[in-house]
Design a protein that fits this description.
- There is one protein chain.
- The protein is 37% helix and 22% strand.
- The protein is α/β, with parallel strands linked by helices.
- The strands form five sheets. The protein has a seven-stranded mixed β-sheet with strand order 7-6-15-16-17-14-18, sandwiched between helices. Strands 9-2-1-13-19 form a five-stranded parallel β-sheet, with helices on one face.
- α1 runs parallel beside α9, α1 runs parallel beside α16 and α5 packs across α7.
- The C terminus is likely disordered.
- Bound molecules: flavin-adenine dinucleotide (FAD).
- Flavin-adenine dinucleotide binds next to α1, β18 and α16.
Length: 471
Amino acid sequence: MKVLIIGAGPAGLSCGYELVKAGCEVEVYEASPFVGGMARSFDLWGQRVDMGPHRFFSKEKHINEFFTTLVKDDYTLVNRLTRIYYRNRFFHYPIKLFNVLWNLPLVTIFQILWEYGRIRMFPYKNPVTFEEWVSNRFGRKLFEIFFKHYSEKLWGISTSKIDADWAAQRIKSLSLWEAVISAIFGNKGDKHKTLLDQFAYPNHGTGTLYERAAAYINEHGGKVNVKTPVQGIVQDAQGKVIGIKLADGSIVTADRVVSTMPLTLMVKSLQNVPADVVASVEKLYFRNTILAYLEVDSLDLFRDNWIYVHSPEVKHGRITNFRNWSKDLNGDKKTTILCMEFWAFDNDPIWKDQDENIAELAKKEIHLLKLVPPQTKILNAFILRVPRCYPVYETGYQVNLKKVENYLDTVENLLPIGRYGSFKYNNQDHSILMGILAADKIMQGLDTDLWKINTDVEYQEEARIKDVLIQ
Ligand SMILES: Cc1cc2nc3c(=O)[nH]c(=O)nc-3n(C[C@H](O)[C@H](O)[C@H](O)COP(=O)(O)OP(=O)(O)OC[C@H]3O[C@@H](n4cnc5c(N)ncnc54)[C@H](O)[C@@H]3O)c2cc1C
């Protein structure tokens, strides 16, 4: 069995790793010079950084085996602190009731309670949008404070157009009432750390995991080719997939192709795709990220691993502080690297703007939020553009995605997986699981429905970290 894998991110490499272990012939083709995809780590100003925050967590046995076998004990259990910055105040995330009450004016608290009571009596019957789903759970006022601004910055569309799917996948399904009960009565004396309190982080960056997976593949008879972009899929006269076409025009043949390249581009490379499927795939679109890294001449800016910036007066939406992850990331450096995230579509002016202008904007905004004092020097700036990193869950996207999924199920020997490979808003663990299950499907001839992989985040976060990582 020979398998070609397009893309050396978490999905492609976990799949390649499992296939090589099972004795399969594997070739991975990666467009960029690096492995790890969006979860890669790299050197910047003499230390290691990730592409924004990369918290790894999973309760799933196979995913944790993948992590622990490759990372071994070369990881740190990081205490998690992530807060929301809104109107010059910090709010804990996940939301803590007393912290919210402490931070907000009395009149706003009354509005929250009023709106919550109102929605409990008159909820949206079938919440289909993000706005309806969150309002049903927390009330309109809390929605406006904690969900609306951030979500609209991230997605670039109104929350009344974002599908409820995103909320259901990403927001802990805690109601306001449950939050009150847990704030008053605590967590029933359970002193164990949960995946919410701590997470396991490879000492030299999240990308270590994928560098090691790629090394394993290369050392065990497989081959990871970097700087080798794939142009598209090659099919025979019956439409059966027989290989891939590289950007240099050469063709590589195999028994199966696993694709983690953007679903939209991959489908366009197939032959004789029905017009309605083409029309559907054209309606699926992605949001881009601009990462603005700043090197600040200070060791002590703030304690968070990352901060969600809801404040509507600034354009960025999240800030990572790489000083608060593992000691090994920073080495002997006496400065702090921050990474600010701006989100954009291809046609937005900021996406096309020059790096220097974006760097200036980042500096201006970090001072505006007073997270870096005005007298503290910003020594360096670096801008990194990440195209197509968020599949946009606009209301109704499932209809289009389903049509594409149904069609691709009829294309023999092709397995699309991964974050933009299958148009799912995956974390690393979801992409790793897709990779592992795709390998099982190939080797054992299973009929696993890979489109359905979408692990239950809340269930995972409640898991005790002791149960899943520390033996
Ligand atoms: C800013 C940011 C923060 C994040 N934070 C977290 C977090 O805290 N925790 C978490 O678990 N996850 C996080 N993620 C998500 C995580 O990075 C992704 O889920 C994961 O990287 C997806 O893996 P993948 O293999 O599916 O896709 P990718 O990582 O995108 O890998 C796909 C690979 O395919 C390659 N490729 C594309 N087209 C071609 C082609 N034509 N030919 C050859 N190669 C090609 C790409 O170069 C890439 O290397 C974050 C992502 C971003 C952008």
